Amino acid sequence: MKIVVACYGTRGDIEPSAAVGCELLRRGHDVQMAVPPDLVSFIESVGLPAVAYGPDLQAILDAHRNFYTFFFRNFWRIREVSRLSREAWEPRLQCWDEMNTALMSLADGADLLFTGLVFEEVAANVAEHHGIPLATLHYFPLRPNGQLLSFLPAPLGRAAMTVQQWLTWRGTRKAEDAQRRKLGLPKATDPSSKRIPERGSLEIQAYDEVLFPGLAADWAKSNGQRPFVGALTLDMPTDADAEVAAWIAEGTPPIFFGFGSMPVESAVDTLAMISTTCAELGERAVVVAAGTDFTDVPVPDHVKVVPAVNYAAIFPACRAVVHHGGAGTTAASLRAGVPTLILSTDLDQTLWGVRVKRLKVGAARRFSTTSQKSLIADLRRILAPEYAAQAREIATRMTKPAASVTAAADLLESFALHAS
Predict the structure, then answer these.
(1) Rounded distance, CA 274 to CA 300, Å?
(2) Are residues 258 and 226 in the same domain?
C-alpha cells in the first residue's frame, strides 16, 4: 500500500508518526512523509523518504512561546493577548495553501493518509478530495470528553471542549474555505473536529488509558474509532548515551532536566537555577540542551550538559525527571518509573502536568512562575519515597514502546484495507 504521513510541529510532534512510518516501511509498504523543512533531514536519517511541508518551524515556535509566556503571566490583558494570539496564528494561516499543494501531489494515488494533530484540517480536506481513508494521531484526548478538563463536571468539560474547537475553527475558517474551494469541495458547515469522526476516520490515541480513567467509557459510542495504543517513539540511541551513563555511574543518581525543542528565555539563568538548586539539595543534574544553546554557559562539576540523550536509556538511572511536559517526554518518564516534575510552557503541557499530579507520581507548575525557591520545594516533595513507589507502580501499567508501535501499525493496515 501507498501510505502518506503528513505531520507538522516539533520533533516531539513528528517522532510518533515517524515511529509508525518506520514500522510500516519495514512491513513492505510505500511510505512517504511530509514534515517541516527543518526536520526533513531527521526523517531521512531514520530511513524514511520525506518532503518539505509548510514553513520552517522556528518562526512559529518563537511566536508560540511569546504568546503562552505572556498569556500565563498576563491573561487579563485582553488586547495584548489578542495581538500575540494573532501573531502566533498568522504564520500557520499564511502557509495553508502551500501545504495543501504539497499534500495534494503527495497523496495522489495513496491508499491512506495519516496525519498528526497540527494542520489536521489540511490533511482531512485533501483526503476528502482524493476519496481516500484518513487516520489521525492524537497524543492527548483532543475530541470532546468529560475527562480532560477534570476540574469541571463531565458534561461541562465536554461542552467547554466543543466550544473551544468551534472558536478555533472560526479563526481558521477563512483559510480552510479557500482550500476547500480550490479542491472543489463544498464549504464546511462544522469544524473538522466534528467532520473527521463523522466521516469514519480512525483516530489513534497515542497515550495510555491509565492516564485518563473513564475515557474509554466516555467515548463508548465512537465504535472503536479511538483505540488506545500508548505513546509512540523511535527510541533512538544518541552519541551522548554512553558518556552520560558513565558519568551517572561515577556518583549518585542525578536529576534529569530538559525543556524540549522550544528554547528557554535565558540559558544562563536556567542553568544557574538548576545548578544552585541541586547543590543545595546535594544532588547531581543531567541537563539536555535540545532547543536551547548552552554553549558558552559555565557548567559546574555536579552538572552534565549534553545535546540529547535516549530517554529510555537514561531516565531509569535518574532519581527524578524535570521537563516541559511534552507528551512523549511525559510518557518516557512514566515508563521509566521515576518521579516527574513538569514545568510547562504551553497549554497541552499544563494538561499533562495535571495528569502527573492526579496520578501522584510528581508535581507541576508553569515554567514562567518557577523560581529557585519553588524548584527546591517541588524537588524535595517529589523525591519523597511515596512518589518513587507510586511512579514504579504506574510504570507497570504503561504500554511498552515496541507494543505501541506494533499496535498502531496493525490498526492502520487493517483500516486502510477495510475502508478503501
Answers:
(1) 11
(2) no
Reported in sequence order, the residue ranges of 283-371 that DSSP labels E, i.e. its strands, are: 285-288, 303-306, 320-323, 340-344, 362-366
Helix (H, G, I), strand (E, B) or coil at 116: coil
What is the model's pLDDT at position 67?
54
The pLDDT of residue 84: 57
Residues 224 and 262 in one domain: no
Residues 33 and 101 in one domain: yes
Q: Cα dist. 100→6, 48, 50, 191, 195 in Å?
A: 11, 21, 16, 18, 18
Q: How far, in Å, CA of 245 to CA of 254, rounded?
A: 11
Q: Say if CB 409 and CB 24 are below 8 A apart.
A: yes
Cα separation, 142 vs 207, in Å, equals 12
- Smallest CA-to-CA distance from 158 within 167, 168, 148 is with 148
- What is the Cα–Cα distance from 6 to 21, expressed in whole angstroms? 10
Query: Using CA atoms, how far apart are residues 36 and 218, in angstroms rounded to an integer?
Result: 34
- Domain tally, the chain: 3
Terminal CA-to-CA distance of the chain, rounded, Å? 11
All cell numbers assigned to 223:
465504535
Alpha helices (H) along 118-240: 120-130, 154-182, 192-198, 215-218
Give per-residue pLDDT as tens, 123-168: 999 999 999 999 999 998 989 888 888 778 888 988 988 888 888 8
Report whether 215 contacts 150 (CB < 8 A).
Answer: no
Q: Where are the alpha helices (DSSP H) in 78-153?
A: 78-94, 96-107, 120-130
Element (H, E) at 137: strand 134-138
Residue 25 amino acid letter: L
Determine the pLDDT at residue 238: 92
Q: Are residues 47 and 80 in the same domain?
A: no
Instruction: For residue 334, tell me if it sits in a domain.
Output: yes
pLDDT of residue 186: 95
Residue type, 270: T
The residue among 306, 175, 201, 185 whose CA lies nearest residue 247 is 306
**Number of residues that make up the chain:** 420
Supply the pTM of this predicted model.
0.88
DSSP 8-state code for residue 203: E
Judged by phi (left if over 0) then psi (alpha if -120 to 50, else beta), residue 230 lies in left
Report phi then psi at 32, rounded to 5: -120, 130
Torsion on CA atoms 72, 78, 83, 88, rounded to nearest 10:
30
Say what the pLDDT of residue 82 is.
60
Residues of the chain with pLDDT under 50: none
Strands annotated E in 310-390 = 320-323, 340-344, 362-366
Its domain, for residue 77, covers 57-85
